[in-house]
Amino acid sequence: MTSGCIILSTLFLSGCAGFHKLDNPYVFSERTALYQSASVAGKSETFAHDLCVVSKDTPDSDDAVTAEAAAVFDLSDNTVLFAKNPFEKLYPASITKTMTALLAVKYGNLSDEVTVTKDAVIKESGASLCGIKPGDKLTMEQLLYGLMIPSGNDAGAAIAVNMAGSVDQFAQMMNDEAKKLGATGTHFVNPHGLSDEDHYTTAYDLYLIFNEALNYPEFRKIIGTVQYKTSYQGGDGKTVNATWKGTNWYMTGERKSPEGLTVLGGKTGTTLSAGSCLIMGSSSASKKEYISVVLKAPDHAGLYDNMSNILNKIVE
């Protein structure tokens, strides 16, 4: 979703109805056993030996962190610096697009030309769009920028149909990939995060997805872009010139990032039920990298207050 000051009804109408969190959150002991090493839980070490694992010693309480869920992961040391409700099922809104982008860079061809179909027409009021229309021709790379920079739900649908033949089939690809990554608290039904009660994930699962995506230079390049200008062929054969602007306030200059950290990029998301959300990567002066995630903050200002609060827990 765009991050400007928009009338509340427009800003949130793309979400599921109601302000409620999902039922049946994971029990801590049941979930963490999946990721603990052989020496801790008698499990195979091959899956989690290079992942951050939430332990019972992980700090999880801070009155300044008002979001429903939040966490900071140290990728260099594979440690969790803070984790509030990391396994609670919540709506991810447009952070969903991180998985869509991962599938595109991992299994797709960014130079492929894509002809936009009617499936890319998003009618939900308030949904963020990059403005593509049926008949337009763009490369997969252009669609990825349209997906991640202005948070285009239409670009997400176009990518899904091109890669899998339909939105439903692409959602199955998303869920299959989530399982491969160990994101067992996740279920997707679309490539963009618009309203559906059966579309959910957790802060820890988003870390797993984002961590995998960071392995691809193309993903890093796209999320690190603040503004993207491009041209493509419209359905009428004429050239369409587009400028897409990012939504991360740390990158647009609307909020200053904590001292000593450089934001690598990430993905915002906002719906009525999801609240304000953000996942992103950061690096320190010593080149250590971190993933931080905030889910269901009360509003945009509160989102960045929460994110700065958890990022300030990084001490080198």
Automatic annotation (TrEMBL):
It comes from the Bacteria. InterPro entries: Beta-lactam/transpept-like (IPR012338), Peptidase_S11 (IPR018044), Peptidase_S11_N (IPR001967). Keywords: Cell shape, Cell wall biogenesis/degradation, Hydrolase, Peptidoglycan synthesis, Signal. The keyword Protein biosynthesis does not apply. It comes from Lacrimispora amygdalina. Residues 61-298 form the Peptidase S11 D-alanyl-D-alanine carboxypeptidase A N-terminal domain. Belongs to the peptidase S11 family. Transmembrane segments: none annotated. This is Peptidase S11 D-alanyl-D-alanine carboxypeptidase A N-terminal domain-containing protein. The keyword Disulfide bond does not apply. Pfam families: Peptidase_S11 (PF00768).
